[in-house]
Amino acid sequence: MGNPLQRRQFSVLAFVFQTIFTVLLGLFGRYDRSILPNSELNAEKSDSVDRDYPLFQDVHVMVVVGFGFLVAFVKRYGFSAISVNLLLSAFVMQYVILLRGFLSREFVTTGFFRISVNELILADLSCVSVLVSMGVLLGKLTPVQFLILAFFESSFAVVMEHILFAFLNVNDAGRSLIVHCFGAYFGLAVAKVCQTKHVMVHEENMQHSELFSMIGTLFLWIFFPSFNAATQMSDDARHRAIINTYLSIASCATTTFLASSLSDHLGRFNILHIQSSTLAGGVAIGSVANIVLFPHHAIIIGTLAALVSVAGHVFISPSILERRLSLYDTTGVHNLHGLPGLLAGVCSVFFVFFYDPVDLGSVIPQSHISLNATALHDPTFESSMSPQTVQALNQLAGIGVTLTFALVGGFISGWIMNSSSLNQMRTQPSYEDTNYYMHAEFSLFGKLHNACNEEEFMGSTKGTSKSLKQKTMEHQNPEEPQKLSKKEQNKLERKLKKAQQKLEVEGTIGGNAEAEESTEKAEVDVSEGKYGAYGVIQSTEKKDIKFVQIGEISEKLDGQQIWVRGRLHNSRSKGKSCFVVVRQQISTIQGTLFVGESVSKDFVKYVSKINLESIIDVCGVVKAMGDQRVQGCTQGDVELQIQQVWVVSASEERLPLQIEDASRPESDSTGLSVVNLDTKLDNRVLDLRTQTNQAIFKIQDGVCEIFRNALKKRGFLEYQSPHIIEAASEGGANVFEVTYFKQSAYLAQSPQLYKQMAIAGDFPRVYTIGPVFRAEDSNTHRHMTEFVGLDLEMAFNFHYHEVLQTIAGLMTEIFKFLQQNFQKEIETVAKQYPSEPFIFTEEPVILKYAEGVALLRANGIEQGDEEDLSTPNEKALGRFVREKYKTDFYVLDKFPLAVRPFYTMPDPNDERYSNSYDMFMRGEEILSGAQRVHDPKLLTERAKVHGIDLEKIRAYIDAFKYGCSPHAGGGIGLERVTMLFLGLGNIRLASMFPRDPKRLTP
Fold first, then answer.
1. Is 76 among the catalytic positions?
2. Which of 366, 794, 827, 988 is the most buried (most CB within 10 A)?
3. Which residues contact 123 (CB under 8 A, 6 or more apart)?
4. Rounded CA gap, 482 and 465, in Å?
């Protein structure tokens, strides 16, 4: 935490604030007259404490217990969240009592302000806005910054409340605008300024922490009616607020379970929805809890609140807050407080405008307690508008004022907290309890040395041995060791021994080997030189170490010493043992390390603290497992008995996603965490390390390999096509326009024109592999704006089927090659993305387009003779072909001419159709091809029909003026072949770094 001044920032700041609070309360604060001894008012107000204190207790429980546990769901950040919640509550209560007092009318007139239970209730309500903001900022701020946050936010909140109540006479019974909405957007504004890349991650939760958070939810759910009713002066208003709030949160809870189930494709409930969205009804009803006069209105508000909140979790947070605004809402505050708070504001406008003034009566004026006094401004004024219209406009203005104060105040506060003197988060995240808290762990010598843990007191640095006496003397005064006499040393040693014996008798540490060893003199590290870090490898030396690939380790190497290099996939340690899993692409092996004659405790401890995903070198002896098998490792028949471990490249401790979580199927039924696709793609470098992705891209490489080799075997020549062209190659508008010096150019939709020009240049068989660009705003599972095309073109003698048969045979050869050479990878992918095995026939199935249409109609699906196939009809036809012909791969020939590009040769026997074809896998197109028009006159006519500027394709047309062989070809989408062969379900999974209309990075 930096220098000594930084380490004491919190202590100094807390001392200053507490001193100021004490002095100001002493000078200006007074108890309300009704609670002073012998007060004449006591008799009149004897029942006020009986009425107000139970409400205060309810609100106080919500603040301290409900909100405390609600924010305790972050993994390894449990008691930190709860204790910071307590700190801010205590701080804000004192500060707000002062601030409200100074703004009260009594202070203006008498120089003093009065304190009663009402002031405590209002102070508690103000605490909530700060605690709401805290939910956004967990893990992003230090304790010092949280104090600064509380100071500024409370100041803005009280001033804003003064404006809303005293000048606009806004009705906000449950403080939905003033507390919930304000707190949420204030926190988001601060987060936008203060958060760093280091903490812009989705923090994980654990089962026990989710349970704690659910306890907080239950407390808030139970006491929410009291919260919304606490500020109401009249009994009838309180009564309405209690009933309306209960009805609202009841309908909200039911709707939340419904919406949560619908949002999951397996119908499961999302615990995050249950923890927060079930409370949204209490927030949404808050502004109108005192004026809703019909029960069904409260139920409708609760239902809408649940839908809005769940929609926020499912759509708004990931798509807008995180992806577009780079805002990471740690505990989902925007969906629990922000959106429902805005809904409450909208409801208040609606109800005060549409409710019958006769029914509404005098519900709104003076229905709340605020600022220890009545309003400072009479909101009634002469106007041609009706009273309900004026009040509705006031309510609408209240929403604007709230958002303005929240965003402007948040940005200002964030800017102040982000200053170098206060921002201690620049170099470390704050999700760990241990960043600012000492663990309450028992130490054998804790009674003698309170601040020294056992390791520091009795431990040793590497390669150094110090006696117990020397270590004891150093810890008595770390900066100036105090020299003890021999008598004093002996006396201290006797005390230590006596303490140990006493604990053993009590059974606290009896038989604990670690506690016994801690009393011995530190030993020399017998493993010195066998572990550590290489440092940055800058090619300064060569080492004669031969590494073995993990996938090649088997029982044949039993007893041999080997070296492996891989990533630390998993690690668990207990006592004197440590088990690690080392990963190398899709292969994993377990390594074991036990304290013994040649393995020190320091060695085991060092290995156990290496961060996951670090690259390590491991030297060890292979041990065959015999009949046993290591579960969860690909090399399960062996393990590695570790002798040396060296860190090659260390990973950061905090990972945006866990490799194991990213490897689980989305339909995982174990209840463990899974990672959604956007998060995977945002952190693609980590995601690519999963065994599934390693297998996917090995298979994709295999597709390119066999594509090249098979075409080479058939006499094809590989050529390179330009990707910046003068005119759209497909003749359409879906092209990316780029500036090419002083003229416009386009990214090629395909290498089509240049394949044909190569044929005209007497290269009879050509192919190319390269990027293809399509400016199609299609956000589907199978479209990308950039993909890899496997394109080929071939001259034929008399019929284009010569080419069709060549391509169909090529595809069959690809399928065979993949199944024969990548079976292990296919099985690896199927574990995460299960699908039916891909089947195909030796002789490809070729259907005419008309036959495909007939097959659809025979199964009750309408399809026009000259219409292109829609996506649903494509998939349906794929199912019917699979059922009838037992194949997932087939060819559809003779497509309608109207749906094909201008360079497609018309069918000479039927002008409605063309000499073109598509090829399909699992009912989805993977190749589009045709015989090309090689006659310049016919090509010119076809281009005119499609409205293409002939001058822009002049070079293309001229290429056929000097004679050109008849030819045909096609273009295959590499990613589609990969996706459909493996049954991945989304083409982005088959692209290492996908591009679509919404993704341009990484």
1. no
2. 794
3. 92, 93, 94, 96, 97, 100
4. 19
pLDDT digits (tens, 9 = 90+) for 616-626: 999 999 999 98
pLDDT of amino acid 508:
43
Residue 427 phi, psi (nearest 5) = -115, -5
Could you give the CA distance from residue 476 to residue 486 in angstroms, rounded to a whole number?
16
Q: Which one from 119, 639, 925, 975 is the annotated catalytic residue?
A: 925
Task: Give the per-residue pLDDT at 4.
Answer: 55
Question: Of how many residues is the chain composed?
Answer: 1002
| Catalytic status, residue 976 | yes
Give dist(CA 338, CA 206) in Å, integer.
25
- Spacing of C-alpha 900 from chain mean position: 43
Which structure tokens are listed for 502?
């006493």
* Residue 629 designated active-site: no
Closest CA to 391 of 474, 465, 287: 287
Which residues, in sequence order, are CB contacts of 346 under 8 Å at separation 6+?
Answer: 399
Q: Which region, left, alpha or beta, applies to residue 997 given φ > 0 means left and ψ of -120 to 50 means alpha?
A: alpha
833 and 928 in a single domain? The answer is: yes
| Full domain range(s) for residue 939 | 694-990
Tell me which of 654, 675, 709 is where a domain ends: 654
3-class state of residue 890 by DSSP: strand
Give me the catalytic one of 100, 238, 765, 976.
976
Whether the bond between 844 and the residue before it is cis, its omega within 30 degrees of 0, is no
Q: Which of 573, 570, 567, 531 lies closest to 550, judged by CA?
A: 567
Residues 215 and 348 in one domain: yes
Q: Which helix (H) or strand (E) holds 210?
A: helix 207-229
Q: Is residue 685 part of a domain?
A: no
Q: For residue 506, is pLDDT > 80? A: no
Catalytic choice (516, 666, 776, 813)? 776
CA atoms within 13 A on the CB side of 460: 21
DSSP string, 277-301: GGGHHHHHTGGGTTT--SHHHHHHH
Does 774 lie in the same domain as 902?
yes
Question: Given 89, 287, 750, 928, which residue is catalytic?
Answer: 928
Decide if 801 is inside a domain.
Answer: yes
**Pair type for strands 587-594 and 577-584:** antiparallel
For residues 245 and 495, which has the higher predicted lDDT (pLDDT)? Answer: 245
| Residue 301 is assigned to a structural domain of this protein | yes
- Of 162, 774, 934, 967, the catalytic one is 774
- Give residue for tokens 């490809």: 844
Q: Catalytic annotation on 928? A: yes
Catalytic residue among 783, 801, 882, 999: 783
Same domain, 612 and 508: no
Q: What is the pLDDT of residue 295?
A: 92
CB 243 within 8 Å of CB 249: no
| Residue 61 tokens, joined | 């429980």
What is the mean predicted confidence (pLDDT) over 780-796?
A: 93
Which distant-in-sequence residues (6+ apart) come within 8 Å of 295 by Cβ? 243, 244, 247
Domain-embedded: residue 680? no
Confidence of residue 3 (pLDDT cuts 50, 70, 90): low
Q: Are residues 586 and 498 in the same domain?
A: no
Q: State the pLDDT at residue 204.
A: 45
Write the CATH number for 612.
2.40.50.140
Element (H, E) at 148: helix 143-166
Number of domains making up the chain? 4
pLDDT, the chain, mean: 83
Chain-centroid distance of CA 368 in Å reads: 41
Annotated active-site residue 835? The verdict is no
Dump pLDDT digits (tens) for 580-595: 999 998 899 999 999 9
Residue 478 pLDDT > 50: no
The C-alpha atoms of residue 514 and residue 493 are separated, in whole angstroms, by: 19
Q: Which ranges of 477-526 does DSSP label H, i.e. alpha helix?
A: 486-506, 513-517
pTM of the shown model: 0.54
